[in-house]
Amino acid sequence: MGKYDRYICTRLHKRENLPGPTPAQREILAAEGLRISMEHVLWIDSDVIPGAYYGENTWIWPSSYPDQIDPDVLARRFPNARPLFPHSHDFPELLSWWGADPDHPEDTTPKTMIMDDEEILLETSWVCYAPAGMKHMPATPPGARKTNKPICHWTSGPGVYVREAGEADKRDKPQDSAAPKPEVIRRTGHLENKKYFVFGYDPKVKRPDYMCPLDPSFSRPIAYLDETVVPGAEFGCDSFWLLPGARARSGQMVMDRHTLPYGTSITLNALNYADITDLCADAELWIGGEKHHINKSFGAYLPPNVEAGPLIVRNITREIFVLKTGPVGEGIKKYPGG
User: 71: burial class by Cβ within 10 Å (0-12, 13-18, 19+)?
Assistant: First the structure.
């Protein structure tokens, strides 16, 4: 066993933290051969990997895919005891909702995002930067069209997410359904907080030198976010697709060898409905001079002041989503990782 094996995660942890159904209810559905639309691939934080940042990676599957349980049937069988509501964290958070067709990322189900007192309509794919302390929540607008393609949804931030802090007691106690609920009116239209969204990849952005250039013959950029793209951002991302094909089989250099004074998270997930744990490729990742071979979807944390890279991906047979997150701007001093 290598010294840095523990910095690579290939299985889903903290299933009890996921939104409903509960882990026990999910086991019942699995025994019946049924699947739900949102399936988690990974949950990463410092409890899972020492010093790591928080991150969740999920696929959202269309209802037309095999064995999908109808959402209305699911709601009747297992009412969601852990609904999402506007919340904030003491750390900045990135959230993304991205069409999983590498050539048509705009093909997605529209969402709205609550950002403090604003509700922003999002009709295409996006990455959101939610500053520390800002209340936020994604929602689906009434009557929204639904795509027939998968959606990639992920979140990440330099903290430990324990669902919505301060609401656990409310969530676990019966609520008085007759109690009046105050109506919250939020501003819509041209909104100030839309500045916290990125809707695509700007080819003029300056990616770190250790991240290899994206060759359009076997990769597709998704979105890049740092303090130059969203002024004041303290946590950022670099995300893209790796594509199958003859060129991909020989190996794609994703990341060169480098050492940073702060931590970095990197995730690779294959778009494989048949087995979401299968990377559908062979990854070679070096951490601290150790070579690791990985053929499962994985999340890795690269600790500060430890040599990381190269990362090479070979024998790609399905599209692979690649995500790198870490502190940017003033966040490098505030959230160096451990």
Answer: exposed
Report the length, in residues, of the chain. Answer: 338
* Domains of the chain, CATH where assigned: 5-169+187-334 (2.60.120)
Distance CA 161, CA 198 (A): 23
Task: Report pLDDT digits (tens) over 102-146.
Answer: 999 999 999 999 999 999 999 999 999 999 999 999 999 988 889
CA dist., res. 102 & res. 99, Å (int) = 8
CA angle at residue 208 from 204 to 214, to 5 degrees? 60
Q: What share of the chain is helix, strand, coil (3-state, %, to 5)?
A: 10, 35, 50
Residue type, 324: K
| Residue 236 and residue 326 in contact, taking contact as beta carbons nearer than 8 Å | yes
Pick from 40, 269, 302: which is nearest to 161 by CA? 40
- State how far the Cα of 191 lies from the Cα of 122, in Å rounded to an integer: 12
What is the distance between the alpha carbons of residues 13 and 1, in angstroms, rounded to a whole number?
Answer: 21
Q: Is the pTM of this model over 0.85?
A: yes
Q: In 3D, which of 335, 337, 333, 279 has the Cα closest to residue 311?
A: 279
Any bridge partners for residue 242, and if so which? 219, 320
The phi and psi torsions of 334 (rounded to 5 degrees) equal -85, -30
**Contact, 10 vs 296, CB < 8 A?**
yes
